[in-house]
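Our collaborator T.R. sent over the components below with a one-line note: 'Predict the complex.' Nothing else. No constraints on interfaces, no templates requested, no preferences about which chain binds where. So this is a plain run: every listed entity goes in together, and whatever single assembly comes back becomes the starting point for the next discussion.
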Amino acid sequence: MVDLSVQIGAITLQNPVQPASGAFSWEYNDVIDLNRLGALVAKTICREPRLGNPTPRMAETEAGIIQSIGLPGKGIDYFIAHIVPEYAKFTPPLVVSVSSESIEDFAALAEELSVPDVDVIEANISCPTRNASGGNFAMHETYTRDCITAMRAKTKKPLWVKLSPNAGDIVSIARAAEDAGADALVIANTFLSLKIRTDNFRPALGNKFGGLVSPALKPIVLRMVYQVAKQVKIPIIGIGGVTKAEDVVEYMLAGASAVGIGYAGFRNPTALITIIDDLAAWCDARGIKKVTELIGAVRDQDMETDTLVAASAGV
Amino acid sequence: MVDLSVQIGAITLQNPVQPASGAFSWEYNDVIDLNRLGALVAKTICREPRLGNPTPRMAETEAGIIQSIGLPGKGIDYFIAHIVPEYAKFTPPLVVSVSSESIEDFAALAEELSVPDVDVIEANISCPTRNASGGNFAMHETYTRDCITAMRAKTKKPLWVKLSPNAGDIVSIARAAEDAGADALVIANTFLSLKIRTDNFRPALGNKFGGLVSPALKPIVLRMVYQVAKQVKIPIIGIGGVTKAEDVVEYMLAGASAVGIGYAGFRNPTALITIIDDLAAWCDARGIKKVTELIGAVRDQDMETDTLVAASAGV
Amino acid sequence: MAVDPNTNYTNAALRVGDVDPYPQRLVGEFIGTVVANTAVNDEYKLVVLKVHPHALTAYAGQMFHLLCPSPDGAEVWMRRPMSVYRVDKANGRIEFLYKTEGRGTRGMATLKPGDDFNIAGPLGHGFTLEPSWRNIVVLGRGVGLATLAPLSQLAAEHKVGVTAILSARNPGVVMSRDLFEGLGAKTVTVLDSDGSSAVENVEKILEGLIAENKADAFFTCGSNRLLKLMQRLGKKHDIPGQVAMEQIMVCGFGACYVCVRTFEVDGKRILRRVCREGPVFNMQEAVGW
Amino acid sequence: MAVDPNTNYTNAALRVGDVDPYPQRLVGEFIGTVVANTAVNDEYKLVVLKVHPHALTAYAGQMFHLLCPSPDGAEVWMRRPMSVYRVDKANGRIEFLYKTEGRGTRGMATLKPGDDFNIAGPLGHGFTLEPSWRNIVVLGRGVGLATLAPLSQLAAEHKVGVTAILSARNPGVVMSRDLFEGLGAKTVTVLDSDGSSAVENVEKILEGLIAENKADAFFTCGSNRLLKLMQRLGKKHDIPGQVAMEQIMVCGFGACYVCVRTFEVDGKRILRRVCREGPVFNMQEAVGW
Ligand SMILES: Cc1cc2nc3c(=O)[nH]c(=O)nc-3n(C[C@H](O)[C@H](O)[C@H](O)COP(=O)(O)OP(=O)(O)OC[C@H]3O[C@@H](n4cnc5c(N)ncnc54)[C@H](O)[C@@H]3O)c2cc1C
Ligand SMILES: Cc1cc2nc3c(=O)[nH]c(=O)nc-3n(C[C@H](O)[C@H](O)[C@H](O)COP(=O)(O)OP(=O)(O)OC[C@H]3O[C@@H](n4cnc5c(N)ncnc54)[C@H](O)[C@@H]3O)c2cc1C
Ligand SMILES: Cc1cc2nc3c(=O)[nH]c(=O)nc-3n(C[C@H](O)[C@H](O)[C@H](O)COP(=O)(O)O)c2cc1C
Ligand SMILES: Cc1cc2nc3c(=O)[nH]c(=O)nc-3n(C[C@H](O)[C@H](O)[C@H](O)COP(=O)(O)O)c2cc1C
Ligand code: FES
Ligand code: FES
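Returned assembly:
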């Protein structure tokens, strides 16, 4: 039986499969055994209580959904008092995602969330429907550096940084986060998108813009994980379009140490458990003893020279 | 019967539906009547004869394909002598797409292509599997500005600029192209992507990276068209995931004056004609007299205040 | 477990006869087998599924989240929530009454006997009956009747009398009437076609029931106009009430906050999740939509 | 034309009986009706379609680009190319012999009589026969036989004698043999199971045919090893040849340059498009794969 455990800095995950922030809550214990997950990831929390964005908050698209929730929540005090204890009932490490509009407040939140039952702080600096001055710092190298530097100074907890697929040069931003002291990178958040209804000419979402979520996007995010993995030393958690065990393998081959899952859990509430089971079976069938063997194991050197390469000589 | 004609600067298209570069050739006349199209768009041509990338050049993904062709072709001399005349047999305007690795050569190509049978020059500065120093100038504002300025100086033909969805800030790049003298913007090229085979751990494409093409991406490109349309005065041709007449309407509502189509024509060789017919029927059914009424007609002002907005007052 | 690299969306949903690995969980993912899927009238269809017994714990007002088949070859990317129309414990069946609208329900309409249908649930909080209530009034319109119908079953079990006022565009509501009456409810049908569904007329009927002491509690679903009416009369006569609400959903488990509606509690406006705190809410707190 | 906003992928493909708006076009998009889709052996299936007469212009070696149904609820996003196995003009039918491999062919395997199947074609350049040829030799393996089979039809029409050497892992090639023989071809079956498919043995058979003057031209498909053999013997004895090649395709019309293979012409290596210049090429120019 394969050893599925992976190491994300100081944190050990029993397997590389975790939910994605915003797509999960302890309430999923109604349908699956949360103790089987690699980690528990809470929905992004802000300092103040927030209602979030106007409805409708989701619209189906050609091959997926766009959504814009607007980070609703009851604020950090309620979160620490009432929600952290809900997660503490389960064994996997708790990852707490935070967002804010200012760097100072991001740092202050990191400090305040450094309570015993929180295992990891995830900086959500990439909510796509916020602008750079609204906390979507992952669009810019310097904002990212400054924000993570400030957070790092205020917490000794492992600090993960969630990056944006909307950035043009994700490698520079990933490097900035690493330099500033991030323990791991989460790649990536959702793609800023728009849907217009042709019946009434209005944007389909109450908030106009939304984040696109779809298995179709996996090849884009996989490319980002691959590019970043070649340039940073810290571990990467790949998020985007994982719906089956082979997708976990593909992300790990590209250089990720773990994956996060949103959409697949909406489609099949039991998906995360199935994916963990299938991943173990997949490794066992191939004699893979430790799942970590897969990390970065893409065979991208000496690409098989096919006939075309030979042909090039002839031009 | 609706008037489907649209104006792209000095060029009039009989309807807003045209093929996308690289997904079309005069050889499609075997199956459809090319004279019905809004424009004819040739595959990107380079100065030198090129074989292109190693095979396999296409792989299917979760919801679309990735492809990396590598701009094969017989070079500009052959193109002008033999391919332009093939297109000249048909009535719609001919758009000729060009690419190069240097700004000087881009400009020289624009000059050399300014022959009578060429109606528009499209600068493909966004081929995703090239890097910035390889002609993928649309990743950067200054490269874009310099390249289009140089081309503008060498041709009086209408000059369209194809932008990249991989850029982080497409609005600035669009503005740079407009400032430099572009007559229209083509938004967008393909998304840089990667697929790794889990059977042999190798990249699925001979060239490793490829461009993702999928109807799933339409909401992302639509958002870009919408954002750019608010900030530039020149017309926009929207390209990405158009598979039906309503998609043309959606792009036009967002601010596009026309659309380009690739994937849908692969799936259904007769798709472009069907989409033109359906677009006319759609307009007729709604009493729309001129299709241009749709351009930028999204009702994005005074978004209906739903209950949540009212609720916000109460926090 | 055999792993087919080409399989999309693996799942561990339970079929009839499967051993239940999580019998203690409130919610399951189930693959039901279609027994029948028939048109009830021009607009509505009823699908009957044979399901794993775990799914039969659903009670009135709860819902399932349905993975609809494709109507057109392209995938349907998100589940669709539907109230349970009827739980038939004896035969191990569950039924959904639905209106064919968009791609999801058009996909449902293609289901044939023997087909698989993946459903997740039961989800949310349904209707509750106070022990003190002897007679309740149910007022529903359109597909809201699908949500209210199982109340008659619940009420029958608790020996509570039901008067069901069924509002519709035209007489195509016969099916729900049969279900209500089959379980002993009295029904009143009001129609747009003869004007009887006008708010003033429904108000008169409700006032009559209140006068007869037949209205210990109000229940409604499916019409904002009728909700407002019941709220007004409920406030006037101090009659408690419950409303089942709808909203577009993603997760169904309370995680995503897509399905919120506005409520007014102690003069303060708050949001509640239809999938979690609902779909059945205190009628007086609902702001409507 | 009625426009359904929910319809995906509109198309103007021709059904049997439709008026053809473009009778002069070489290529069409057609919606065939499945007449039969049956297993030929453990690996191969044969699908028979009733199609619009325009599609029946296909000749040996040409292909169609097939819009395969989904095997699993998720879409199949790209067409799949297949050689025409048989054109049955009398009955207005066209047949494809295929091997079930990935999602596309697994989707094809689900087709049932009466189902629609969208095919585009005929595409590419097929086999040609020189008037001077009296006897040809066809050497095929695996699914390559599907591509070569219609050659027997073409040869029969031109009164050209055919010897078909059918190479296979085991005796499951009976079906193609029947088709070849039915049209008057002589067949030789060579198998892996008894070692007769070894290159040396096939070489011996070919040399025999050359000696008998039965080999005015060579034709092959489906095996690089056999291609190399025929190239060598063809060069040695100055026998012309044609090879049908495969490559992953996107457009099928010569536009995308996805389907290229390498050829050597006058000592220079060039690329040709399988969908346009091919799928049938001059055997001596093919570099193989
Ligand atoms: C708790 C609950 C119980 C429900 N019970 C039933 C039932 O028993 N029978 C029934 O026919 N319908 C019921 N609905 C409504 C049902 O979910 C929608 O009709 C269905 O999702 C529409 O899907 P579609 O693909 O057919 O249409 P779409 O194309 O997705 O949408 C068509 C229209 O329906 C609206 N809509 C989509 N989803 C929802 C939703 N979840 N709630 C409200 N409006 C929506 C859209 O905004 C659009 O206007 C219920 C909804 C909820 C929330
Ligand atoms: C001109 C031509 C004629 C053909 N005629 C036939 C035929 O008559 N019968 C038949 O069974 N098959 C034929 N093929 C091969 C057929 O196209 C592939 O088997 C099919 O596309 C595989 O699709 P899939 O979804 O089942 O497999 P996929 O999952 O797409 O692929 C399975 C395997 O097949 C390879 N493959 C995919 N597409 C092609 C392709 N176009 N050419 C070669 N290899 C490919 C892939 O690399 C992979 O290794 C022909 C191919 C060409 C180019
Ligand atoms: C409804 C919804 C809510 C989300 N909320 C958050 C959030 O609060 N914080 C965050 O970092 N990401 C959020 N995301 C993004 C997901 O964490 C994840 O990055 C994205 O869904 C891509 O993964 P997937 O393809 O597996 O769904 C949300 C996504 C969805 C669909
Ligand atoms: C096979 C293929 C080849 C392409 N070649 C080119 C090209 O040569 N030049 C170019 O500007 N875009 C090229 N593109 C991109 C298309 O023009 C278009 O931007 C993209 O396919 C998105 O549109 P779609 O979603 O309608 O396919 C190519 C796309 C495909 C699929
Ligand atoms: S649907 Fe996700 S919280 Fe209700
Ligand atoms: S498949 Fe496009 S050129 Fe051959």
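Summary for T.R.: The longest strand of chain A covers residues 94-98.
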